[in-house]
Amino acid sequence: MNDTLDPRAISERLRKHLDGFAIEVPSWGFANTGTRFGKYLQVSAAHTLEEKFSDAAQVQKLTGACPSMALHVLWDFPRGIGDVAAVCELGRQYGIRPGAINPNLFENQVYKYGSFGNPDADVRRLALDHVLESVAIARELGNVDLSLWFADGSNYAGTQHIRNRIEWFHQGLQATHAALGEGQRMLVEYKPFEPAFYHTDIADWGMALLFARAAGPQAFVLVDTGHHYQSQNIEQILAWLMHEKMLGGLHFNDRRYADDDLTLGSVDPYQAFRIFHEIRLYQSEHPAVSPPAYVIDQSHNLKNKVEAMVQTVLAAQELYAKACLVDHGKLTRLQRECRLVEAEEYLRAAFWTDVRPALRTWREERGLPADPLQTLRASGYLARTERERGSKNQSGASSYA
Ligand code: PSV
Ligand code: MN
Question: Is 261 close to ligand 1, i.e. is its CB under 6 Å away?
Fold first, then answer.
């Protein structure tokens, strides 16, 4: 049982797992993003892409687990592909790799009735052009993932032809796939509702799976943990996607009601643990398959953004570390023999094991601060960014991110 492991043995067991754990931060998580009803501005929020890279570099310096940052084309590449060289330069300067590229198919007014699913062929073409430019950007950045989320849908029954829109989506996604470079991946994200409230064109993992399959072999599904209805069994969805070799990546956050963008593990840490466990179990049985990409997708309206990001990474490391304590051979034996209570208790014992001392040891061994949140507060970084960015962030007039 895990609970018989002493702290030293836990540290030993976790060292290599923690070395191998990385999670990408989102550029939009450092900017003044907000709710549908508005946003409370933070004086220290990142305004420019350089400030986002600077914040990401702080998170990496404190945690050692976030070497890359996901980017949104509209917000971070205002001149499109023309910005690639500048982005690469910022990446070099701050020691952060540009990560997954997210096209933006929802802010432009032309997307009012959809992008790939819009009944107007000209709008569909515009959306495809934007996605193709995003593919080119992702390729130039070193074949990073293209991460696709569509806000497409409708609000009222009878207002859109659902099956026509399926066809248009197939066409758009297939054309996107055809433009991918060798080894480049496209990830298809789903979400049940919001901003559409009657139907969403890619509403669940089944729709995303069918679209990705039809698009081609370099297309996979992206699971955002916040994009599910209440009580849905997310780890079972992951198990299915991994079984089908179709899980491309995860967007991590927590939720209580809908796509709340709450800190990972703040509502249901056991669920995040079960997610990591299911992935680890699959990986132990299929070591040759690359693990899915881990990306944080949270926009904090109230918590300080850098502080919240560091807190999230620590939570992710803790929950991942707990999952790494499970001996899969032992669990599988208990399952085969249907020793239900023992199997459940074995899994729960891993979850309840306090891995924080092992994480402290790992950090000290790697020259990282033992208490990253405390070090961040003491570093003066937050005060400095408040001072330097304050005047820019006083006015409410800025884009979503
Ligand atoms: C949509 O809710 C989403 O999860 C997508 O991943 C977007 O890229 C991200 O949030 C930021 O809007
Ligand atoms: Mn997401």
Answer: no
